[in-house]
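Onboarding guide, step 5: your first structure request.
Type a short instruction followed by the sequence, for example:

Predict the 3D structure of this protein.
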Amino acid sequence: MYRMKRRLVALAASAAALSAAPAFALDYGVNIHTGSDATTNSTRAGIMKTRNLKTARMDLWTGDMNAFRDQVNKIRANGGKVEVALQVNFQWDSSCNPDLAGIEQRAYNDTATLVNQTKDIVYDYELLNEVQLRPEIQREVPWNSAGSSTAPYQGKPCVASLTAALKGMSRAIQDIRASSGLPLKVIMGALGRDWGLMTHLKQQGVQWDITGWHIYPRQEQASLLNDTWYGAGGPLAQLASFGKPVRINEFHCGEIYEGAYENQVGMATTEKCLKGLTRHLKELRTQTIANIESIHIYELTDAPSKPVPENRFGMMYNLSQPKVHLYLATAFAGGTLTTAERNEITSRGLLTSAEIDAMRTAAPAPAPAPAPSPAPSPAPAPAPESAQGTAITSSGTIVDAGGATWTVSGGVIYRSGTATVSSNVTLLLYWDHTVYQQNSWGDWWMWVNNGWQATTDPRVAAPAPAPAPAPAPAPSPAPAPAPAPAPADTQAPSVSITSPGNGTSFDRRATFNVTANATDNVGVTQVRFYLNGAQVCTDTAAPYSCTMTLPGRRNSTHTIQVQAQDAAGKVGSATTSVRSR
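The system replies with structure tokens like these:
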């Protein structure tokens, strides 16, 4: 991750007793940044599964999408999930441009590109990363100087440009959530004690669903449960005041920042790190102040190519050399420890065997692997402006402006990229004779996969439907006559959730039944039921239903999604929300 940061060194104090079950359903995860080669991606996913690390936080930008998708899919195949820190172009723009409308629109477009490319495998999107530490923001409002006050952020041009970008990003995710029916969530991250920035962003229209936080506490410092250096009630009370679930999406010991940190077990400062991690994880596990959904340890492996201290935050030296830090995270997550690994923890007095066993017993069962998701597709666009479309038959029709190679054969585009279309032409994309996307002239980022049809459409005064492009050539006939193929399945199933109604309240940990109707022009093959993004049931015959149990969190909102799939792999979905009291 591009980290413009000095990490937060928190304050923490005396340990609380470890109970058999956390106050809230709590997942443990890890930061792993980017996808890699297939072998590395498989190894990482396997480590997460063994250690019961259910979530990963990755970076997402317009880089190697194949490596990213491979890593995410391998984590999902093991029952895990991924949240991402969105790195749109504004991440590297510190100009404080006064064109706020332009900044917001560009951030919206960049975000829509990335989300549409990944919404089939990722639901949780964080807006940038550690915005309080951006150099231009610190010039206007030094980090940890504002507390809960919004006044320092008002009338500041760099804060205004940041706010515009975040607003555009948030709006894009919300719009795609509304159009797709997918349970996409926006994460807005905080660090330090400058809660006033979060309040300012909220007042200016930046909306989010989950509040993120980065914290690196030392062993000897005050408790995260009540340290008033962070404001009244301590940091968790401040986080809870925004009324959102919380994810601690970067967490490790503050000792790593010290020059004396040895990165070697048995050495004094490294052992202090382990003791501090244990103490603070115990407190966070049993606290009842904030609805903490997950804790992501930063990070999975050391990064030797980075400077000190960024090179030594790993729970492993490399993928074949774990540290005791990984064993400790495994214990809290309820994962699998060898006898030798358990002994590394108990011999140091970090945890007892009884505590390790209790956390393993209390750990939620691994989530079932999700069913394969269809590739993402653009949202439907307005009808075309004229009736004079012609199929694209050569790459010369589209002038590449982004370095991508366009291969067009019979009107079928086999690659995506940035294209420039002349001012009197509209580019239309078809799937089975249905217009799915239309652009105006200028630069346009296109999400097209094998099978999309494209036509040029010279604009005329009178709007009219565009003709369908010529179909691709049929395969050579078999020697003997064959039956005519069945009509193409062009429609996704229609889905509705019949019970419970939106906004229904249940007691926490309540068990209830979800029922749904699903229809399709050809036939529904299966209906999948999800609670908070995790698949709970699959039903293959009407009437479709699923029994669910709410988590133990009080006063929280939970998302139910139902997906229906037909034989062609097309998916329709419906979403509703319930509350636990």
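Each response can be followed by summary notes, for example: Residues 390-455 form one domain.
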